[in-house]
């Protein structure tokens, strides 16, 4: 349920807003305040998903409410309500962090569309914040082999630019990690990093996921929804496993790259986006092009910079460092004492055929941390990590 606060000193306008929103959805929990001071107090004491705030009010005007609220709860979106003479001020409030503004008297469609978009945006930002918490500590690329050192050097050169990057490599090699590093070291690092696993989304839903949709675009489209490109505005969108994307979705991605515009499913209205695109695949895209499963023009748009992540078997010198790195992290996660690996255990692990790459190595290290002795021995490896 979305919790919305309406701050408006004119009782008639306040009642109209409450009535429109309550009739639009029974999932809106609506609170109201008759002036800026009461509105700010309500914001301090409640977790709102959206605030509608008049500009001209006694005691404390809407600009002051916005500025004060952004200091204590910066993530709450504000829609400013402006009279005819307040339009310049309303535009200026967007520079101060307001999501949008609506004019008095409120136009029904304009109001509802703006409210839906603001709530969608807050939801996507929240999802991105959760994602950052989950992966934020896993950006470090571990290894000093020639192959990994070359990738690190490439990232240092490419990250500060807006050049598009195509990352290739087998499953489990760390392509996602490279994408995160590119974003973290870029000038967009404070903006969203939005990840889309193209292989995990059904082909009939991929366009809606990427570009959003309008209410009624298809059977289950019960409200307007922003897509991942909009959520990634000013930041980076990571299109993982892009080789699995449908041709129709590829065409729309190509347009987004060419024109910096997208349109939601169900409408031709253009939306400007400023997004850096990083893509990854475990497929041979040139072969996919030959077999008419991938657009050649899209490939050339994506592959401005190519980064190939090597298989673990091709960077065996990094295995001791990776084992030490994973052992420390897993010991903390599992709440067990730190364990070291004997030289013979490491030597044996280095000799294995790591077809599952780094992901497989991490799983094996976790198994050995849990089941092995105080120092993981060669016998532990043979017993619990036998290949």
What does this 3D model show about the protein?
It is built from 16 helices and 14 strands. With 387 residues, the chain is α/β, with parallel strands linked by helices. Helix 2 (36-45) runs parallel beside helix 3, helix 13 packs across helix 15 and helix 14 crosses helix 16 (378-384). The protein folds into three domains: 2-128, Response regulator (Rossmann fold, 3-Layer(aba) Sandwich); 136-310, 3-Layer(aba) Sandwich (Rossmann fold); 313-384, Helicase, Ruva Protein, domain 3. The protein is elongated, with a radius of gyration of 26 Å. The model has no long low-confidence stretch (mean pLDDT 91). The strands form four sheets. Strands 2-1-3-4-5 form a five-stranded parallel sheet, with helices on both faces. Strand 1, helix 1 and strand 2 form a beta-alpha-beta unit.
